[in-house]
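Long-time lurker, first post. I've been practising inverse folding by hand and with some scripts of my own, and I keep getting stuck on stretches where the structure tokens seem ambiguous. Below is the full token string for one chain I'm working on. Before anyone asks, I'm not after the true native sequence, just a reasonable design that respects the backbone. If someone could post their per-position residues I'd love to compare against what I wrote down in my notebook.
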């Protein structure tokens, strides 16, 4: 019976050794809170952020108006800061963009 116990103990030890080489914590242990994900946000910002460039803005004025008019045609969404709606006189959209939009 002691040989079977020794084999089981050796097998457990081998599994633990293999797991520790893979970086898996042993059963019954806890990881240090905050350590695993510490600094991930800063790395992501550093990797993807480009100073001076805003992805919320479309640089081309015609592209902005095309997007606004597309939104208007699909859902009748229009912000007051864009001026009068396309159906109202005095719409701020460039005439060539209005004509192309149909």
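-- Answer (accepted) --
I ran through it position by position. Result:
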């Amino acid at each position: 019976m002691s040989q079977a116990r020794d084999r089981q103990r050796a097998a457990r030890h081998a599994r633990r050794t293999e797991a520790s080489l893979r970086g898996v914590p042993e059963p019954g242990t806890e990881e240090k809170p905050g350590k695993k994900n510490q600094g991930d946000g800063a790395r992501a910002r550093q990797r993807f952020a480009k100073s001076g460039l805003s992805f919320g803005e479309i640089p081309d004025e015609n592209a902005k108006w095309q997007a606004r008019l597309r939104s208007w045609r699909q859902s009748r969404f229009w912000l007051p800061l864009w001026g009068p709606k396309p159906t109202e006189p005095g719409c701020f959209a460039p005439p060539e963009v209005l004509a192309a939009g149909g």
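A couple of notes from the structure itself: DSSP finds four helices and no strands in the chain. The radius of gyration is 31 Å. Happy to go over any region you disagree with.
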